[in-house]
Design brief:
Blueprint (H helix, E strand, L loop, with lengths): L3 E8 L6 E8 L9 E9 L2 H8 L15 E9 L9 E5 L14 E4 L4 E3 L6 H23 L9 E3 L5 H12 L4 E5 L5 H7 L3 E4 L1 H4 L10 E6 L3 H9 L1 E9 L13 H5 L3 E4 L7 H14 L2 H6 L1 E4 L4 H9 L6 E5 L2
Parallel strand pairs: 8-9, 8-11, 9-10, 11-12, 12-13, 14-15
Antiparallel strand pairs: 1-2, 3-4, 3-6, 3-15, 4-5, 5-7
Length: 330
């Protein structure tokens, strides 16, 4: 491959004007790394939307190839764990933020950032999962480690129609949990019930400031919203319950009190998908292969064109994207 298409984001140092352009790069343009990968598929996560639109400080080095996830095939390797032809997945590690990312035909990265793609997953399905689905699985694993079993009571999922939420609902339901799905899009109620949600919680019930402690409604939660929503989720979690926090679509603040922690023994579990150790990533993908219905995954996935990535970035920030989005790169 002498040259290849790439999406480039740049920012004018003087005016701070943000621009996204389609370009072509060569291998000589790539950043340092010991494994080169022909990128086959990628996806659009909420963080990608921020990078594509410049509406959040995701990209911290310019110019940058955005895209925090890819699935592809190794074309060159100086890393002992990977050889030419290996099928691999990358999620996070600052790729698409400080290191050239997925929206290009080739990526050169550290082999320590890669995992081998499970044979049961196609490259397309691996990206239908992507960081959003992998994060959802990390949150579910955290709840399990905290002994939040189906017998403990319902589990709430906020931002349920989004990428993290959709896969969290589908996996939790398949594991036997009673799932409460919170969304501000009432038109998505049927979609969420098809994924396995038992009931729908209107976003307005959680988005306005509430009491330090409310009625106990759920044993656990997967929250991708943050801010006031997360504060209200904590305030309505049952005694000894736990909330896995993995996003900030509603804001990075947490206007809460210590009451749920000291009066009900509620635990707030932080979920980091960017720098999680390889062993945890591999466990998450093993569980996704086992516990995610691939037919459900296909139904909640939309494929878009490379040329449409910027528009999709705007749509995902506006809450117009349901489920997961994949894009063919190679």
């Amino acid at each position: 491959m002498t040259d290849f298409p790439a999406l480039i984001v740049s920012r004018d140092d003087a005016t701070k004007a943000y621009a996204v352009t389609r370009s072509r790069l060569s291998e000589a343009d790539l950043m340092p790394g010991d494994v080169t990968v022909a990128v086959e598929w990628s996806t659009v996560n909420y963080k990608d939307g921020l990078a594509l639109t410049g509406k959040g400080p995701v990209v911290r080095r310019f110019p940058m190839v955005p895209g925090i996830d890819f699935a592809g095939r190794v074309t060159a390797s100086g890393h002992p764990d990977f050889t030419v032809g290996d099928e691999v997945i990358l999620n996070g590690w600052g790729v698409g933020e400080v290191h050239f990312g997925a929206y290009a035909g080739l990526a050169r990265v550290k082999g320590d950032w890669l995992i081998k793609r499970p044979a049961e997953l196609s490259a397309r399905r691996a990206m239908a999962i992507g960081t959003a689905g992998y994060t959802a699985m990390l949150a579910i694993l955290a709840l399990e480690r905290h002994a939040i079993t189906p017998a403990r009571g319902p589990v709430l999922v906020t931002g349920a129609a989004g990428g993290v939420g959709s896969i969290a609902v589908a996996v939790l339901a398949r594991l036997g949990y009673t799932v409460l799905a919170s969304t501000g899009r009432p038109q998505e109620a049927d979609y969420l019930r098809q994924l396995g949600a038992g009931d729908i919680v209107e976003r307005s019930e959680l988005s306005a400031p509430g009491k330090p402690l409310g009625r106990e409604r759920w044993a656990g939660a997967v929250d991708s919203v943050g801010s006031t929503t997360l504060a209200n989720v904590l305030a309505q979690t049952s005694y000894g319950g736990a909330v896995a926090a993995c996003g900030l679509a509603g804001g990075a603040d947490l206007p809460a009190t210590v009451m749920p922690f000291i009066l009900r023994g509620v635990s707030l579990l932080g979920i980091d998908s960017v720098n999680a150790p390889i062993s945890i990533r591999e466990e998450a993908y093993r569980r996704l292969v086992r516990d995610l219905d691939f037919d459900q995954l296909d139904r909640l996935t939309t494929e878009v064109e490379f040329a449409d990535l910027v528009d999709v970035g705007h749509d995902i920030l506006a809450g117009k994207v349901r489920g997961r989005v994949v894009v063919k790169i190679g």
